[in-house]
Specification:
alpha/beta, Rossmann fold, Dihydrodipicolinate Reductase, domain 2, 3 domains, 9-stranded mixed β-sheet, 6-stranded parallel β-sheet, globular
Length: 465
């Protein structure tokens, strides 16, 4: 048993001197305390042994025990055009799934500034976070009926207090030069008013779907934006999403032959009878304009054509307080000029289900889930001799809201018509009104024939590929 070194004994001068083993000493004082105490004493005493220890460590580092390599930068092609991505050296074999190019964000001063009107579920849970993934867009203003909530959100996202507006002073937004565009995220029945006021304030308008509660309201919104020479886009996020684009390309190129039929469903079990979605003045309808619209709009997008006839059926559970004013469930059929027939369903009363299936001559394409914010899944089936090939398409998720917002910003910057302008929302509203009419009258309703492909869409969105 070795005694404590004489140098350390003074630390224990108030206790009876005693010989301790190293293990006993460390157990009492702790390794960290012992080491620190020894080091401090050595330094305080100017002990050359301590200096020697430090010197030996420095010498070890400087003598080359740690490798010193020349700094290098991986090879890359840097285009002069700032909107083009940097091209990095390949690191994956050509047989592997390739990564997309790096993002090409615009400098903050060149991004389109948005005012968000309405601070509900969609804005707080999806849109505000989505701006973090945007490369051409930024949030610069808020509009809300809740000053307390708006103050907190402004603080969280770095928005100036002077750029926060109530619904009453919404028109003052005309005097804010940082606001280029307004994103309207209000109950459906308020879309028309705030689109018109926003356009009159000189701002471009991005409006959530459904566009409005009636064909007349949609037309008023379009007319107001045209009169003010402002752009109007409806936020159909599905049309800016890569899974659906792949299906659309397969359909348009006839990869599985001629499409014969499409089945689509988008439904969920919604609750809270006091929510605005169950108030007809605010919502315009129930499941159809809210979630059923995805089936309708996505089918039109995939086929690039317009239905000529619809047949609708509506049901609501009797005495359910949720459905005193709006419908619970809608099923409808659509016929298209190419001969495609579709069967669609939507509901506020069943467990969440969001999918569609395109049936063609030599195969099928299925999205399940199809309309969720993330986690979309695409699979296709095709017969090859005695084999039936089922393919799971692994496609990286993108932020769908960021994609649609940046497309609108791109339209503003380049002065082009957005891919889903007001006319696209108007067409959906016409078809939904025909479905409601069919259900009321118990008969098919014909629609005006539209011969042009993609008749109501604007400039094709750019892809990051």
């Amino acid at each position: 048993m070795k005694p404590i070194p004489d140098l350390i004994q003074p630390l224990f001068k108030h206790t009876k001197p005693v010989d301790l083993s190293r293990q006993q000493f460390l157990r009492r004082a702790g390794l960290g305390l012992a080491t620190g105490a020894i080091g401090s004493i050595l330094v305080a005493c100017g002990d050359k042994t301590g200096a020697s220890v430090n010197s030996s460590v420095s010498t070890a580092v400087s003598s080359g025990s740690v490798p010193k390599l020349p700094a290098t930068s991986p090879p890359a092609e840097v285009p002069a055009d700032s909107t083009k991505p940097i091209k990095l050296e390949p690191i994956k074999a050509a047989t592997e799934q390739q990564d997309p190019p790096p993002p090409t964000p615009l400098p903050d001063a060149k991004r389109v500034g948005y005012a968000l009107v309405g601070l509900g579920h969609l804005t707080l849970n999806q849109l505000l976070p989505a701006f973090g993934a945007c490369t051409k867009s930024k949030v610069v203003a808020l509009v809300s009926g809740s000053p307390e909530k708006m103050k907190k959100v402004a603080m969280q996202y770095g928005i100036k207090s002077g750029s926060c507006y109530s619904y009453e002073d919404y028109d003052k937004i005309r005097d804010n030069p940082e606001v280029d565009a307004i994103y309207i995220v209000l109950p459906n029945g308020m879309h028309a008013e705030y689109t018109v006021r926003g356009a009159q304030a000189g701002k471009h308008i991005l409006c959530e779907k459904p566009m409005a509660n009636s064909v007349a309201e949609c037309q008023t919104m379009i007319d107001a934006c045209k009169k003010a020479n402002r752009k109007l886009m409806v936020a159909y996020r599905i049309q800016y999403e890569p899974h659906h684009r792949i299906v659309r390309d397969m359909v348009q190129k006839g990869e599985f032959g001629k499409v014969k039929s499409i089945m689509a469903n988008n439904g969920q079990n919604s609750d809270n009878p006091s929510h605005w979605r169950f108030d007809k003045k605010l919502a315009g309808g129930g499941a159809l304009p809210d979630v059923g619209l995805y089936c309708l709009n996505t089918i039109r997008y995939l086929l690039a054509e317009e239905p000529t006839e619809v047949m609708g059926f509506i049901h609501s559970t009797p005495d359910d307080p949720r459905f005193r004013e709006v419908e619970e469930q809608v099923n409808w059929l659509m016929k298209f000029p190419s001969g495609v027939q579709t069967s669609c369903a939507t509901s506020y009363g069943h467990h969440e289900d969001r999918r569609y299936k395109v049936l063609a001559e030599t195969g099928w394409m299925e999205m399940d889930p199809a309309f969720s914010y993330e986690g979309l899944q695409l699979q296709t089936s095709q017969a090859e001799g005695k084999e039936n090939r089922l393919t799971q398409h692994k496609i990286a998720d993108i932020n769908q809201f960021a994609a649609e917002i940046d497309h609108f910003s791109e339209s503003i910057i380049r002065n082009t018509i957005p891919y889903t302008p007001g006319e696209e929302g108007l067409q959906d509203q016409k078809i939904m009104e025909a479905i409601y009419k069919s259900a009321r009258e118990g008969r098919p309703v014909k629609l005006p024939a539209v011969s042009k492909k993609d008749a109501f869409r604007g400039a094709e969105p750019k892809t990051n590929a």
